Amino acid sequence: MSNLQANKISKIFKDNKAFIAFLTAGDPSLDKTEEFILAIEKAGADLVEIGIPFSDPIAEGPVIQEANERALSVGTTTDKIFMMVRRVRQKTAIPLVFLTYINPIFVYGIDRFFKACQESGINGIIIPDLPFEEKGEVLDVAKTYGVDVITLIAPTSKDRIQTLAKEATGFIYLVSSMGVTGVRSEIKTDLKSMIDDIRQVSDTPVAVGFGISDPDQAKAIAKIANGVIVGSAIVKIIAEYGDNASDSLYNYVKSMKKAIS
């Protein structure tokens, strides 16, 4: 099962440009998160990133911070999220990736956490605050359970882009802009030269995230990258419509997927 699980992620980039959607587990409830994942998949998303809510999400802007607060306030826990993922897995085979900070994994227990990932059907994980130099411990355990640890490459990584890219599996999460997550009207980073650097050492697919919110931005990014990641714009829709967000999410994701196809 382990290799099959890990290889699932890179497969989504094979024949098309991938649309990757992010939402926060438990916002506004775990039942709704389950419903929203299925709506997003139906609209054409190729992979869903599920944020595990955390009280101190340092990489997140206000939109996702507030989603974390809403999720925690209704009693969302890691155990309950695993149960929700199991239910989702009975209805869809779409690749699912957790986004979480290192602290919740340590608190849960590294081995126990990744074993639960495998058993519930999580294919990969993104850990924004895990330093490259310290990822060995997590990487080995994740590998044992067939979970890809997704490499993040930021504009500040300049001298280390190739070091980071060489070992990447699943896909590379290329951070479009400095600072925290959030919708941006303009992305000024020279993403093309960063992708060129990556390509010299790795053919792992590259998906760009942070700040992408409208179809024109997505279309422009898809010309140079293998995929587009959208988080804050989706979380904003959930904040606005709450329990009734499914239709709006479906329409939004559909328009974004169409823009990059």
TrEMBL record:
This is Tryptophan synthase alpha chain. SUPFAM superfamilies: Ribulose-phoshate binding barrel. The gene is trpA. It comes from the Bacteria. The chain crosses the membrane at residues 92-110. PANTHER family: TRYPTOPHAN SYNTHASE ALPHA CHAIN, CHLOROPLASTIC, TRYPTOPHAN SYNTHASE, ALPHA CHAIN. GO terms for molecular function: tryptophan synthase activity. It is an enzyme of class 4 (lyase).
